[in-house]
Design brief:
By secondary structure, the protein is α+β, with helices and mostly antiparallel strands. Helix content is 28%, strand content 33%. A hairpin with a 5-residue loop joins strand 3 and strand 4.
């Protein structure tokens, strides 16, 4: 399954020119300062990098699950399923803010 180009365009509008785009994992990743902040996933939905300490709180949001890659749960990464959790403008903006805000705390690569 290819990533949702409409979702990618909406993310692009929200992150603005500060992000670099890169095709990764069958999706389109958005990097800030060399760190992947989010991606329109090739499996559908959104991947978001978050502060691992906030993961339990963020997992309470509808559609959010821990990211699993290679059979392992990834600390600090969440998957957000499709509608309505990312179809609503405010909901997507909140997730984009989580990803961009967290990677902004990391030193540039």
């Amino acid at each position: 399954m290819a990533y949702d180009e409409g979702l990618a365009a909406r993310i692009r509008d929200l992150v603005g020119p500060a992000a670099t785009e890169k095709r990764m994992f069958g999706g389109l990743a958005f990097l800030i300062g060399g760190h992947m902040a989010l991606a329109a996933s090739g499996r559908g939905g959104l991947m978001v990098r978050v502060d691992p300490a906030r993961s339990p709180e963020l997992l309470e949001r509808p559609g959010a699950t821990r990211m699993v890659m290679g059979g392992r749960e990834m600390d600090g990464w969440l998957r957000v399923s499709g509608s309505p959790e990312i179809d609503e403008v405010d909901d997507l903006a909140d997730w984009v803010a989580e990803g961009v805000g967290f990677v902004a705390t990391l030193p540039p690569k």
